[in-house]
Amino acid sequence: MSTEILMPALSPTMTEGNLSKWLIKKGDTVKAGDLIAEIETDKATMEVEAVDEGVVLDLLFKEGEANIPVNKAIAIIGDPNEKVEVKKEAPAEKVIEEKKIEKNIETKIEIKKDDLIDTSSPKIEEDTNLSSEEITMRQALRDTMAEEMRKDNKVFILGEEVAEYQGAYKVTQGLLEEFGKERVLDTPISEHGFTGLAVGAAFKGLRPILEFMTFNFSMQAIDQIINSAAKTLYMSGGQINCPIVFRGPNGAAAQVAAQHSQDFSSWYSQVPGLKVIAPSTPYNAKGLLRSAISDPNPVIFLENEILYGLKGPVNNDINFSIPIGKANIEKEGKDLTIVTYSIMLQKSKEAALRLKEEYNLDAEIIDLQTLRPLDTETILNSVKKTNRLITVEESWPFGSVGSEIANIAQRDAFDYLDSPVIKVNSADVPMPYALSLEKLYLPQVDDIINAVKKVSYIK
Amino acid sequence: MKKLQKADYIKMYSFMLKIRRFEERAAQLYGMGKIGGFCHLYIGQEAVVVGILMTIDKNDSVVTTYRDHGHMIARGLDPKRIMAELTGREDGYSAGKGGSMHMFSKENNFYGGHGIVGAQVPIGTGIAFTHKYNGEKNICRTYIGDGAMNNGQVFEAFNLAALWKLPVLYIIENNKYGMGTSVDRAAAGLDLYKRGEAFGIPGEKVDGMNVFSVIEAADKAGKYVREGNGPYIIEVQTYRYRGHSMSDPAKYRTKEELDNYKQTDPIEIVKAEILKKKIATNDEIEKINKDTLEEIKNAAEFATNSPFPKDSELYTDVYL
User: Fold this and answer.
1) Which of A200, A227, A233 sits opposite B126 (nearest CB)?
2) In B, which residues are within 8 Å of A272 by CB distance?
3) Which ipTM did the prediction report?
4) A343 and A443 co-located in one domain
C-alpha cells in the first residue's frame, strides 16, 4: 500500500509552499522522523519529516517548484514490490482523524481565498504611476521601510525576530543584510522593556520602527505606549515629541484562539496623542507606512496577518505617500454607506457585489485607512448622500470604532438618516479556537448583507 | 577621583541649599493651595543629585522619577520656571501642562520627570541607546527609586543595557521607603545594587548623605560607562525627611529614625567641610544663605504671579 506525502501547512496562514529542496530521492527508504524536504512557507523555510515509512516510489514535484497548494501530494512512499496504482487518489481511510483535519484546512483555505479577492480600486486606477507588477502586502511594507531607512539613518527597526530570523511574518526580510545589526535589532522577548527603550530613543531624536510580533503582545508594553509615548509631548509643553511607529499584525489570524486573535483598533483609537492607521491593500499600506514613518508623532500601524499575502499593484515612487487622516472612497454608491477598514474591506466589497446582484442596492464603501484622526468629513458627506449607514469591523462591539462613527452620524447628520446606524462587529466573546466557532465569531459577508437589509428595511 | 576646587565646594553647598529652600517653599505654597495634586519633596536627599551633578557633562542626558524638583535645580534650570510649573502657570517648564511630576527641558538634556514608577528606566536606557547609535561619547544618568527596583521593566531594561552595552548609569536612590512600605517589606534581598549581577552589571553601594562619597562613586562609575563598558549601578543610601508626598504624614516610621538621619544632614556635612578647609568664612556662608533664600522667594513670587495657561492651550501639544 502506498502513501502520499502531502504539502503540509506549516503555519496557521499558509496556503501554499515552495519546494526548495528534496532531502530524499527515488528508491530511498525512509523511516518516520527522517527529513524528507525543505519547504519554504509564507514565513520561513522549514524541514519536513516523514510520518509514514517505506520506500520513496515517486517525487511528484521538482526542486524549486513554487506555489504548491497545501494538501497536494508531493511524494509517494510505499512498498516497491507493490504496483503503484492510482497516483493522485486520496489516501485510503488510514487515519480518519487526520483526514478530518485536512478537510477543515481545505475549507479554511477556501474562506481565505474569498477574503483575498481584490477587485480593483478606482483610486488605484487613477494612479498613473502604478506598478505593472503586483506585490504582496508584506513586500510593500518591507520595501517602504527599506526606502525610508535609506533616506534617513535615524530610522531603525527593532523587535522580536526582525533581524536574523527575517521577521516572524517575513515583513523585515532582507533588512538586516542591507542595513546591518546596528539598525535592525533583534530584541529579547521583553516588550515592556524594549518598547520603553524605543520610546526613549524617539524622545532623544531617533525614529524607531518597533515591530510587535503581534499586537496581542503590545499589552505587555501598553504603559509605555499610552503613558510615555502618547503623552509626553503634551506633558512637556510641546518640547519632547516621540516619532515612533509601532507596527505589526492586529486582529484574528487563523485558529490561533483567544490570546492571539484580537483587534485593538478601538483601544488605541481612544488615546489622544496617538495616530492609528489600518491599511487594507499593498497600495495603501505603502503610502500610509511612509506617512507613519515620517510623522513626528507616535503612530500605531495595525497590519493584518491574513492580508500579508494579498497582492496588488503599488506606486513605487519613493516619495509616494497617502496622508494620515484621509479615508478612501473605495467604491461610490448611492443607496447606503458601508464604513470599514483593514481586512473587512475585502468582505465589504464582496458584500457590495452581492447586494447589487441580489437586491439591486448600490453600496458606497469607505475604507477609513486612518482611524485616528478620523476622517469624519468623508463619512458625513457620504451619509448625507445615501442616508443609510453601516459600519463593518473586526473589533468587539462595545465602544468600537463603529460606535464612535454611529455617534458622529447621529450628532452631525441626524436629519439625513433614514434608519438607525447598524454596526457589524465580532462576537462579544473571547475568540474561540474551533474553526466553526471562529467563523461565527468573525463578521462574515452574510452579516454585512443582513445589516444592509436592516437599514434598507428589506425583510 | 577628580580634584575638587574651592569653587566646587561652594557650588555644591549652594545647589544643595537651593534645593532645600526650594522644597520648603514648595511645601508652603502647597499648604496655601497654590500647588495642587501630588508634590514629592527631595529634602534630605540633596547630596545624591548634587554629587552626581559634579561629575556630569552638559551633553549627558538625565532622566528621573517624579521626585524631580531637585534634579532640575541641579541641572541648572531656573527655579522660577520650575516653581511656575508646580503652580501650573504658563511660564512653567511644561507650560503648566505637566505639573510637579512631569517636567522636562530638552535643551538641557533633561528628559523628565516621569509619573509611572519604573517607566523612566527603559526610557533612560533608550536615551543611552541613542547616544551610542549616534556615536556620541555621552551617557544617560537614569535615576531609580528603591520602590521601582521591584518593577519588572527595570530588569528588562538592565538586560537590554547589558546585552547591547549601552552607556547608561543607573542610580538607585534608596530613601528606604516606597511610599509607606519600607524596603525590607518590599524587596527580597536588600542589596539593591547587586540586582544587576545576573546581567553582569557591576554595582556599588554608597553613602548618599555624604556628597563626597557620592562624587567619588559617580566619578568612577561615570568613567566606566563612558569608556563603553556598558551599564553600571550605584545604590545611594539616602533618606527623605518628608513623607512620600505632601499628603503623607509618614506615620510608618519613628521620629527617632528621622532625627537620627538629621544628625548626618548632607548640607551640614558640606558646610563643616568648607569651614574646616577655610574655603569660606561664616559670614560668606551666611551671605549664600541669604541670597539663596531671596532667590527662592522671588521664584515663589514669580510662580504665583505668572498667568494660568490660556484656555486655548488645552488643545495644543497633543500632536506635533
Assistant:
1) A200
2) 318
3) 0.93
4) yes
Residues A276 and A227 occupy one common structural domain? yes
Cα Rg, chain A, nearest whole Å: 24
Domain identity same for A274 and A307: yes
Q: Is A89 a catalytic residue?
A: no
Q: Residue B160 corresponds to which amino acid?
A: L
Does any CB of chain B come closer than 8 Å to the CB of residue A297?
yes
Peptide bond into B118 cis (omega under 30): no
A262: nearest Cα among A25, A422, A429, A109: A429
CATH of the domain at A376: 3.40.50.920
**How far is Cα B16 from Cα B3, in angstroms, rounded to an integer?**
20
Asked, for residue A414, whether it belongs to a domain, the answer is yes
Tell me, yes or no, whether A333 and A377 share the same domain: yes
Task: Tell me whether residue A323 is in a domain.
Answer: no
In chain A, residues with a C-beta closer than 8 Å to the C-beta of B153 are 192-193, 196, 224
The single-letter DSSP state of residue A414 is: G
Give the CATH number of the domain where residue A188 resides: 3.40.50.970
The partner residues of B186 in beta bridges, in order of sequence, read none
Active site residue A192: no
Domain boundary (A84, A115, A146) is at: A115
- Whether residues A306 and A160 fall in one domain: yes
Taking a C-beta distance cutoff of 8 angstroms, is the pair A273, A233 a contact? Answer: yes
A171 inside domain: yes
Q: Which of A320, A418, A223 is nearest to B117 (CA)?
A: A223
DSSP assignment string, A187-204: --S-HHHHHHHHHHHHHT
B contacts of A230 (beta carbons < 8 Å): none
| Distance separating alpha carbons of residues B72 and A391, to the nearest angstrom | 50
Do residue A236 and residue A382 come from a single domain?
A: no
Nearest by CB to A234, from B115, B119, B318: name it: B318
Residue A175 resides in a domain: yes
pLDDT band for position A46 (cuts 50, 70, 90): confident
Structural domain including A378 reads: 328-455
Give dist(CA A67, CA B153) in Å, integer. 43
CB contact under 8 A, B133 and A206: yes
**Domains contained in chain A, number:** 3
Q: Cβ–Cβ of B119/A228 closer than 8 Å?
A: yes
**CA–CA separation, B33 and B21 (whole Å):** 18
pLDDT tens digit string along B173-201? 999 999 999 999 999 999 999 999 999 99
Choice among A40, A192, A260, A332 that is catalytic: A260
Q: Quick check: B156 and A190 CB within 8 A?
A: yes
Beta strands in B86-188 (DSSP E): 110-113, 140-145, 168-174, 177-178, 181-182
Q: What is the CATH number of the domain that holds A84?
A: 2.40.50.100
List, in order of start, the domains of chain B with CATH numbers: 6-303 (3.40.50.970)
Does A157 score more than 50 pLDDT? yes
Can you tell me which residue has the cell 524622545? A203
Quick one: A293 and A345 in the same domain?
Answer: no
- Selecting among A4, A191, A393, A404, the annotated active-site residue is A191
Rounded to a whole number of angstroms, the CA Rg of chain B reads: 19
B12: which 3 cell numbers?
A: 555644591
Cα atoms in the Cβ-side hemisphere of radius 13 Å centred on A316: 9
CB B134 within 8 A of CB A204: no
Give the pLDDT band (50/70/90) at residue A3: confident
Nearest to A193 among B153, B316, B320 (CB): B153
* Mean pLDDT lowest among A88-92, A234-238, B87-91, B274-278: A88-92
Residue A36 amino acid letter: I
Residue A206 and residue B114: Cβ atoms within 8 Å? Answer: no
Q: Which of A283, A315, A347 is the last residue of a domain?
A: A315
